[in-house]
Amino acid sequence: MSRESILAAVREHASKSFAQTPFIPGQTPIPVSGKVLDADDIVALVESSLDGWLTAGPFAKSFERKLASRVGTRHALLVNSGSSANLAAFSALTSRRLPEKRLHPGDEVLTVALGFPTTINPAILHGVRPVVVDVDPSTLNADPDLLREAVGPETKLIMMAHTLGNPFDLDVVTELAVQNDLWVIEDACDALGATFRGKNVGTFGDLATFSFYPAHHITTGEGGAVVTNKPRLKKLVESFRDWGRDCYCEPGKANTCKKRFDWQLGDLPYGYDHKYIYSDIGYNLKATDMQAAIGCTQLDKLDSFIKRRKSNWAVLRRNLEDIPGLHLVDPTPNSEPNWFGFPMSVDPGVGFERRDLLVFLESRQIATRLVFGGNLLRQPAYEDVEFRVVGSLKNTDYVMRQTFWIGVFPGLTTEMLDYAAHSIREFFESPGRFIS
Hints:
35% of the residues lie in helices and 14% in strands. The protein has 436 residues and is α/β, with parallel strands linked by helices. Strand 8 and strand 9 form a beta hairpin. It is globular and about 80 Å long. The protein starts with a helix and ends in a 7-residue tail after the last helix.
């Protein structure tokens, strides 16, 4: 069977497999997120597998080029998850090859307690103290005034996430970075395609990270990326991703430097094979070519995905904005979010608990999620971690107790969103009918 006939059969099968089924209210699940695949994605996946190149290879390089071009950076490096992207980006700033601004144990990173653990975990692993500030519940991002207050003599880095696709105030972050000579890492894992003052998130910091887990704006299955405009940081991220090695040869290639057996580094003997010289304490965080193949076709659909997410968010906003006791999250001023979900908060005085509403929605097959780990300082994993807290975290605790979100991803139809909004309104108008 020829390659062409195999791919034609795959396309026919995938076209049938991904056909949408009718929506039945109360029975058809309404997920918060999910992959949106079509025949092009599956054909690309199978085509890459036919090449037998199971590690990162030609598709990975193509995806990196396409992603860098789409985001607007010079470099993009594919890794195996968004969490790995955060680890590789942060680790790059601890490299001994970065002497003038290298991060050391005891330095501090400005961030927030609200969010996903792997935004702050790399700092903890490297002995860098997280300095957390409260959030503005209307945007779910850091309070800019508290960020200014939080800068101290040991502060070397700002690393935060654009919460649920809503950019944090990049004017203030950029201002603080310039005034205090700070590194900036944008955790844009939930925000691919969002903009601030018309410019893509991921292009403001020294480094930025993205996730391509199926819940995110595009998917490679498992996967993520680090982007940067700085060649030196690109080389360091690449090293930490690729075992910490000094060599920068692409997979399957050797002697790119033209002096593979002419190096003298560390206490190694002269001429030690450059492919086995390690200048950083790294990991293997690489993705596969099959993942990258799907990423290439997914990137082609990103603009249509963004349009659908924004449209879905607008449907929910129109349907929910006038409900007394339900507070909706607003876009950060000067931003155009690419919403990861539709967040909202239940007023503590409405006469029922957030949990009551979530149980009701789940009973109707409407999936819900909280804002990830809530106040991470209250999570058991962080009981023994040293944080510096600036001010109180009352708003972070409010979000932890009162806020949740539902989906806006492109796989949801207007019919599904209308049903979800109607169900929320129905509960608020008569909660006693549904609370046993």
